[in-house]
User: Fold these one by one.
Assistant:
Number 1:
Amino acid sequence: MNRRQFLEFTSLILAGSSLAGNTYSTEHQQQLFALGKNFIEQPANIFSDSQRQLVRNLVDIIIPRTDTPGALDAKADHFIELTVAHYMTAEERKTFAAGLGELQAVIDSAGDLAIEAESKALTVLLTEQLNNLEERHSDAAWYQLGNRVGNGFDSTAPFICQLKELTVVGFFMSEVGATQVLRHNPMPGIFDGETPLATDQPSWSRNRPGDLS
């Protein structure tokens, strides 16, 4: 599966059957689903052992196991390594590697914290660093994707955004995330059956509550 196929497969999974019959033929859908089925089972060796353990710790902080499965149960860490290895551009991969390197340097400077020891102190330190990265890059365009029409992939996203996006996508595209955590909302948002409309205004043209223009 190349980068384009991967993005198509991801879009198909997230969009669901609404694309069927319009964008993709049945045969093409079957090909994409077949490619995606065993994606997580593929080997990946782009990370060092310490980087691999660091990613494990990070995804466990982003989606920890509670009364529902967490990112590690869904193998989101391996999903990230596969994506970095096969579907990131050289520049995106450089950004991700630099982000891991920065966090590793912080851990090393802490002295007695070992990345292999999943201690409470290490979790506290990494959580603090993730919050710092979030604050530092709060003006990144990635954070505005949800406010745009026609959301798209942001290749300029900083490391913290890459990490969060891949963790969430990897989790909810997994069998564990999709079957045990993800819930279908057939009508997102709030239904308002008494919204006043202008005489010549179609119901779907309202941009915000009270807007009659």
Note: DSSP finds eight helices and no strands in the chain.
Number 2:
Amino acid sequence: MNRLALGLIAGLASFPALAEEPVTGAAAAMTDAERSAFRDEVRAYLLENPEVLIEAMDILQQREESAGLERDSTIIAANSARIFANPNDWVGGNPNGDITLVEFMDYRCGYCRKAYDEVEQLIAADGNIRFVVKEFPILGEASMLSAQFAIALRQLHGDEAYDKAHHALIVLRGEPTTETLTRLAEDLGFEPQPVLDRMKSPEVMAVIQDNYALAEMMDVTGTPAFVMGDSVMRGYAPLDVMQTFVADMRKGG
């Protein structure tokens, strides 16, 4: 942006309307007529050169994005164990992988379902990604029931059971009612009633509440959201973007 444009924008910001607040600083040395003429000059310049505003908005957006990245990095560093190594979370992929990918997900989220196969492809093709799932049910009662079922099954029967339930829930077509989840438990080879009883236990709800609190701290408001290294990727991304995300993190961001 040229110096004239910067000067005009800065000047405009420093000359408030008389009706809004007292005039101070450089503006106080000007008469009302001079201030009015100055505003007219700025307005005319901006109307003749609208690209100046676009450039200024681009710079503002870049600064906001940079500040957001710094904030993400700071929060992740301060909560690293809670994000990447929480024993309440299921770990898939390569448990000894050189990089960890964390996903906040909701079984009823269409984009989570769309991302599921691509994340599976990413992990399988790479072979060196440790994958962590954080249950984050935010789309209503059906989401909550699904998450409760998966967590309850893991707490009762371990990681292999959770892995099977996770896949079954992500592709489930119908609503996760009590009847549906009963059949699902049976199909997976488990007695349904202990799982159903466990679903609303304090132990299950504590996992979900902790994920809610962590997501709020990290400004994760939707699903899917991915955390890797010192960065957060909010929203669905196709496989090639995820591959680039992994490559960038391996290079140190």
Note: The longest strand covers residues 99-105.
